[in-house]
Every structure is written in structure tokens, then in C-alpha cells.
Amino acid sequence: MIQTVGLNKSFRSGWTGGRRLQAVENVSLRIAKGGTLGLIGESGCGKSTVGRLLLKLLPADEGTVLFDGADITRYTMKQMRPLRQQMQLLFQHPDSALNPRRTLLDSLLEPMKLHRLLDKEARIAKVLELLELVGLQRDIVYRYPHQISGGQVQRVVIARALTLGPKLLVLDEPTSMLDVSVQAQVIELLQHVQRQFGMTYLFISHDLELVRHMCPQIAVMHKGRIVETGNAQQLMEQPAHAYTQHLVQAFHVVRPGRTK
Ligand SMILES: Nc1ncnc2c1ncn2[C@@H]1O[C@H](COP(=O)(O)OP(=O)(O)O)[C@@H](O)[C@H]1O
Ligand SMILES: [Mg+2]
User: Where is the ABC transporter domain (predicted)?
Assistant: First the structure.
């Protein structure tokens, strides 16, 4: 479904004296249709940058991005337009995800308007259908973001992404701002909608517990590079790279006795 080969991205950074900071280095990954790849690593290691490169929200300095068989590396904005609805980003700050001055209904309808999908009635029907799917009451649509909880905001954001029928979702720490109990519900919902629509996920997180629960395949990122990729169980039991060993060890210290 999605594949990258040798992605590089550097930023010019003020506080390193104008030198370029290599945020992402030689990142190659691939996710099969309907699959989930977990991308784990500490804050600042380049995870979000990889997600944005994948969706072409950022141009890569070097490397290739293949989406659904097409080499989209050099696609222009205009060429990307029809693909935008097929690849969506869900990110961690529920507060900034929705326009505070617009009703949830407006926010939910907006992407379909933008992409000229369906007519007005069908759009509203779609919104209502998706609200039910994400476990929200219909009458919530007349409220504003500040009138609902963080978990509800994240459900609305998921429903909004689904209005466009995406094939690929990049989930960038989608639950890191939520309470643990709400987090579990949102994760369950994400798994449910993935199965229902056969979507492909890149699941970005710094939380090994979450990643190994959610992702059969895991890529470990450290200082801009992917240092190890493998299936979750193998990675937990026999981490090959020193950094992965460190991650797994820290995980067992926090949760002694839990290996499965
Ligand atoms: N737009 C940007 N301009 C300058 N530096 C950036 C920009 N985006 C990210 N960086 C830097 O790139 C590195 C990787 O960031 P990021 O991909 O956000 O990491 P992560 O998501 O793993 O926390 C960090 O050092 C960050 O400061
Ligand atoms: Mg990030």
C-alpha cells in the first residue's frame, strides 16, 4: 500500500547555529494493504517527520514514496489533490484538530465539501452514519469542540477522516493526550474501523505497550534512523539493536513480570 525508500529530510535549525539538522535519515519502510506498522522511538527522533513525508505534507530531500503502486515522490500539489482523500493524518492534539468557532457538523462536512464529494443530503447522511460508527449521539453535531470531552473530540476527528474514505491513515500519537481509560476505547475504535474499511495504518507512538498491542509489525526509530524492524513478539523477546534492547528493558522495569 505504502512504501518509502531511503527518505532523507533535514531542517535548518536556528539553535544549532544555522547548521542543518538531519531529522530523518535513510528511512525505508513498507506497509501492506490493511496492515499496521508501528513506528516507535523517543520524542524528537523523527517519527512525525516520517509521517508527514509519507503523506507528502513535507517534501523529502531524497528518497522515494510509493502509494498504492504509484511513485508519488515528484507529484505536484495538483497531482496530490485526488490522493489527499485517500491518505489522512490524525494527530495528537485534539484541541487544535477542530475549529473552535465552528459546530462539529460544520467540521465534519468540510472535507467532503472541499473534495466535492456527494451532495448536501448525502453528506449529512454520511456524517450521521459515521457518528454512529464511532459511538457518538447524533445531537452532538450542534455543539462546539469546547463543549465535548477530549475522547469525544478524538472520535469526531476519526469520523471526519472517515468521511473521505481513506485507504491510509497516519496516526501520530492519536491518544497521547487522553486519559488512560479513554485511550483504550479510542484504540479499540481505531482497530474496529480499520477492520471495517480495510485501511492501512502507520501508528506512531513513543509507548511500547500501546504499539505492541496495536501493531503486528514494529519499526524502531532512533536519532532519525530506523534501527530495527520486526514482528512485535520477536522484537519484544529478542531485540537485536542496542536501542531496542534499551526500550524493551525499560518496558519490563515499568511492568515487571509482564512479557506477553
Ligand atoms: N518544521 C521543522 N523545522 C525545524 N526543525 C524541525 C521541524 N520539524 C521537526 N523538526 C526537528 O526534527 C526532529 C524530529 O522531529 P519530529 O519528527 O517531530 O520527532 P518526533 O515526532 O519523533 O518527536 C526534531 O529535532 C525537531 O526539532
Ligand atoms: Mg511527533
Answer: 2-248
At 184, list the grid cell: 483504550
Residue nearest ligand 1's atom 25 by CA: 44
83: Cα separation from own chain's centroid: 16
Q: What is the pLDDT of residues 8-51, one digit of tens each?
A: 999 987 666 677 889 999 999 999 999 999 999 999 999 999 99
Measured distance CA(80)–CA(159) in Å, rounded: 22
Q: How far is ligand 1, taken at its centre, from the CA of residue 26, in Å?
A: 16
Q: Ligand 1 center to residue 112 CA distance, Å?
A: 30
Count helices and strands in the chain by DSSP H and E runs:
10, 10
The grid coordinates of residue 154 equal: 478524538
Per the DSSP assignment, residues forming a β-bridge with 11 are 21
pLDDT in tens, 92-149: 776 678 999 999 999 999 999 999 999 999 999 999 999 999 999 999 999 999 999 9
Q: Are 24 and 8 in contact (CB under 8 A)?
A: yes
**Quick check: 42 and 18 in contact, CB under 8 A?**
no
Question: Which of 7, 8, 10, 11, when mutated, tests ligand 1's pocket best, judged by the most ligand atoms within 8 Å of its CB?
Answer: 11
C-beta separation of 83 from 72 below 8 A? yes
Residue with cell 524502531: 220
Three-class SS of residue 131?
Answer: helix
